[in-house]
Amino acid sequence: MVIHAISLYDAVLFVHILAVVVAFGVTFTYGLLDACARRAGIADMVALHRFQVFLSRRLITPAMVVVLVAGLYLTFDGPYELGDPWIGATLTILIVIFGLVGAVLTPAERRMLAIAQRGAQAGGGLGDEYAAVARRYAACGGLVSLLVVVAIFLMTVKPGA
Fold first, then answer.
1. How confident is the model at residue 4 (pLDDT cuts 50, 70, 90)?
2. Nearest C-alpha neighbor of 77 from the set 12, 159, 5
3. In whole angstroms, what is the distance from residue 133 CA to residue 155 CA?
4. Phi and psi of 10, rounded to 5°?
5. In sequence order, what are the residues at sequence separation of 6 or more whose Cβ sits closer than 8 angstroms to the Cβ of residue 63?
6. Which of 22, 25, 21, 93 is nearest to 58 (CA)?
7. Mean pLDDT within 107-134
8. How would residue 2 be classed by pLDDT, with cut points 50, 70 and 90?
9. CA–CA distance, 68 with 19 (Å, rounded to integer)
10. CA nearest 50: which of 101, 114, 105?
11. Is the pLDDT of residue 114 over 70?
12. Is the pLDDT of residue 6 over 80?
């Protein structure tokens, strides 16, 4: 067996792909986790939203930064260029996702956590305010998931390359 040297490009490509899995993989489970927590009760909703806030701050956003930095390195050091439509589109998708996470998803997670904590302390339910925030969160989360799938498609198929 011949062992080949691993290039820096290949190592960064590995880090890039791993960061995508780390950043977005867990988010595809949020709908199932939400359904499970709703059936279990308000205390589980508090735990779910606390977990989401923690993951957004400590895992998802930092991993997204790694996706961006590694992706830019791959673009500047690899056989493709930033001007290639599939690269430009995936970079645009990532920037849009950053914006949605920062402007909509993370604030909504914090808001849902606060509402759930109040409801749990009062011994009540989640209420209409929670329902409205959860609808926005679900819609935006669905859009982000779709954008991630489109980006993965573009990155693997490389249309026009």
1. confident
2. 12
3. 32
4. -65, -40
5. 19, 20, 22, 23
6. 22
7. 95
8. low
9. 9
10. 114
11. yes
12. yes
